[in-house]
Amino acid sequence: MITPEEARTRAENNFRSGLNCTQSVVEVFAAELGFDPKTVMSIALPFGGGTCRMRETCGTFSGIMMCLGMFKGIPGGDKDVKDDIYKDGQALAERFKKSNGSIICRELLGLAPLNSTQDHTPSSPVSEARTREYYKKRPCPALCGEAAAIFAEYLAARKKEAELE
Question: Which segments of 17-139 does DSSP mark as H helices, in order?
């Protein structure tokens, strides 16, 4: 089982290697959770940049939610499983918010909030070049690391609970 510190380092390195924020988190856990990493990375691709650079739900948090689904999800519509995942997902959201202040990409990046009186043009769909200046102005590597560490802690706690049962 991957430790929170190992997960943090790996996710940060994933982002610095060019993966988007969601991919950086899910890559850490895909194989451990029994999923093909290439497939999961493909599914995670559109969630980067707050979903296709629209700056909505932070991609690192989306990565946590994808990992939660890989860990607990089952095919079909089992209400008990769904309710359990929603409960844990909300707890993970609170944990992420406590550490970072928000789960919204634009807020984490310090961008102007959306409101009903503001004309909002979506962010360009073209990703920025990963330069030294890019990394200086972005909290994304650290957010990737924090998200991966949060999920690693969650996973370790759930596996420990299962051993006690």
Answer: 21-29, 37-44, 59-72, 79-100, 105-108, 132-137
